[in-house]
Amino acid sequence: MIKLVDVTKKYDDLILLQDFNISFEKNKITCLFGPSGVGKTTIANIVAGIVPVDRGFVEGIDNSLFSYVFQEPRLLKWYNVYENIDFVLKDVYEPEKRVDTINSYLKMVELSQYKNYKIDALSGGMAQRVSLARAFAYPSHILIMDEPFKGLDIKLKNEMSSLFIKMWSLSQRTVIFITHDVEEAINLSHVIYTLKNRPVDIVDRIIVNNKEEIKNLLLNL
Amino acid sequence: MMNSILRNKNKLFIILFWIFIWEILSLIIAQEIYLPSPHAAFSSLINLLTSKDTYITIYYSTYRTLAGFFLSCLSGILLGIICGIYKPIYDLFNPLIIIMRTIPVMSIIIIAIIWFKDTNVPIFVAFLMCFPIIWTNTVSGIRSTDNKLLEMCEVYKIKKIRVISSVYLYSSLPYIQAGMVSALGIGWKVTSAAEVLSLPKYSIGRFLYDSKVYLEIPDLFAWTIIIVSLSFLFETLLKTVFSSGDKND
Q1: How far apart are CA B207 and CA B56, in angstroms?
Q2: Cβ neighbours of residue A117 under 8 Å, at least 6 residues apart?
Q3: Does B39 reside within a domain?
Q4: Strand partners of residue A40
Q5: What are phi and psi of A68, to 5 degrees?
Q6: Is the same domain home to A178 and A128?
């Protein structure tokens, strides 16, 4: 279990989190659902350790490795597809293992024949698939997905979603999934936190079992 | 193909036009000591190009310019990367570099003549003039690095040295390259200036000085044409290296 305990986070005068508590179950997909600007990304970044807290602490992340799928692909455009994944694996795997890992994940996201392509030559959906492959190829314990399918059309969004579920079931890890898309939240996660207000409050913690019922609940928020 | 021939034809025409203007001006002034005719300058140039000493001189002056240039590239890029990443180190070096940028070339040359052997004076001066340009460009390049990429590196716990070599360096490459091109041009100018005052045995500057002393103005023009051509040649070379690097990427 990963826990934020009594966490307070301010940006100048803006209090984003005040004595905030939340927990994420190991090897489950937990969704942070709420309007833009409520502080979902900040919560995830505190877990990942890239945003320091003003008070409180994070439990259960000792020696954890993180991977991240951002809203934008955040790839190095001077490297090709293969090199971009290799870039994050260099410090963790031996060369041989790297070759195998990269090739198998590129195959999973159906980009094997594009592995020598420069990033600029890829479409937005393809670049985001590279970013997804990079996140799963990296031996992380915790994977953060920050509105990763935003800006993709419905068809691509569905493709990416099923790709994500396929990869997650092959290599289960703790996932924090940030979205304000109802369908995405229900279809991809085990637990949904609905967030509101400033400083942020947890409105509800929903365990996803009856999808229709939850959908109505989220749409009426 | 046809296009490039046309373009070259155009360029040739433009050059011929300005030489023609030069010719007319020299005819109006009609005093070689003020403005020699293109004919006098070019025949003096041809004369120079038949002498072995000219090539030795070009060799040594080129060596000095490039030595100063490469020294400034090496130290400017290295220190620029460090200063671009670490603000306190930037604050420490910035005043020094502002001073370097504003000191008159002549002051540096005269101080260098006191400090160094004649042949090393131009190298030192070229270094001191080129260094701030390279440094400033490298710092701006490093600072232009996309924060989002750096955040990605932080999440994936990429070692700092690899963040520098794979992210910072690539992001700042266009800035560094532009800095190198302008530094090289300035390098040629200040090397010749420093040579005029320090007078190393084989140097274009010494010949410029001699032509002034003996009032051989066509020679002065001929040597100037040589410097301009060398500068142009090396600039083209540098740009070719850069653009072939871009293609390989």
Answers
A1: 12
A2: A80, A81
A3: no
A4: none
A5: -145, 130
A6: no
In a domain, A70, yes or no: no
Q: Which residues of A touch B148 (CB under 8 A)?
A: 70, 72, 74
**Predicted local confidence at residue B248, as pLDDT:** 58
Residues A150 and A178 in one domain: yes
Q: What is the pLDDT of residues A65-101, one digit of tens each?
A: 999 999 999 999 999 999 999 999 999 999 999 999 9
User: What is the rounded CA–CA span in Å between residue B37 and residue B247?
Assistant: 44
Tell me: pLDDT of A152 over 90: no
Return the structure tokens found at A215: 């959908």
Q: Which residue of B has its CA nearest to A80?
A: B249
- Residue B140: which CATH number? 1.10.3720.10
Total beta-carbon pairs less than 8 A apart between chain A and chain B: 40
Q: Are A147 and A116 in the same domain?
A: no
Q: Is the peptide bond before A199 cis (omega within 30 degrees of 0)?
A: yes
Assigned domain for A102 exists: yes
Contacts of A79 in chain B (CB under 8 A): 166
Other residues' Cβ atoms within 10 Å of the Cβ of residue B178: 15
Interacting residues of B178 by C-beta distance below 8 A, sequence separation 6+: B137
Structure tokens at A91: 């410090």
CB A79 within 8 A of CB A40: no
How many structural domains does chain B have?
1
Report yes or no on B42 lying in a domain.
no
